[in-house]
Here is the input.
Amino acid sequence: MNKPYIIVVGGVSGSGKTTVSKHLSSKLGNAKAIFFDDYDFDGPSNIIDWVERGADYDEWDLDLLLKDLEVFRSDSVRYIVIDFPFAYQHAQIKEWINFAVFIDTPLDIAYARRLVRDFQDSTAKNILLDAKNYLSTGRNGYLEMLQSIKPSSDLVIDGTLPVSKITDIILKTMSKSYS
Here is the structure.
């Protein structure tokens, strides 16, 4: 049995990783999708401190995700699409990855998407507190990903494009690179 082709879709929070991963897995056929946000990973308790200490991605314990990945690998699927922000930067998973995509979404758009997604039922006070936190320290986490994850990805794609266009570009690039 052939091993499935594993595609990682990375980017900052709000970049569109989950949306692109869902659309891509539906277009590929015979594919499974795994979503980072479905897991409660053991990792750094303070993201800001983690970034300031050098952002060691291996501090995140991916055992639960890897167990699911093993199950999917034995399910005779052809593709596994993983919504995973760290791409090749995590030692536990980098050897499994065949192709890493970075959704390069401008930080203002990514942050606005995150506000819309996460604060729909929140008070203005909570939204303003989050914005203040983002400006004072949280933005550094986004910038760290742009410096480490983006350059190590196989494909960097404009996150302002429509999801269908992003998916088409990924599929076209994969077919050229790995046919």
